[in-house]
What we know:
3 helices
Amino acid sequence: xxxxxxxxxxxxxxxxxxxxxxxxxxxxxGSGQRCWRRLxxxxxxxxxKGLHRLLLANKAP
Length: 61
């Protein structure tokens, strides 16, 4: 599953405030379990900390 689709699935779950297992497969983001595992791996790798720093550094005045 491409990273972009997993990220879209993660954002969908967070935005809709639903359980991971309720992520609809027909949306094409993969299973909720797959998206959760990718999120967990990215968190452990520091991806979101780096993204947060990048966004703060590029914040408009």
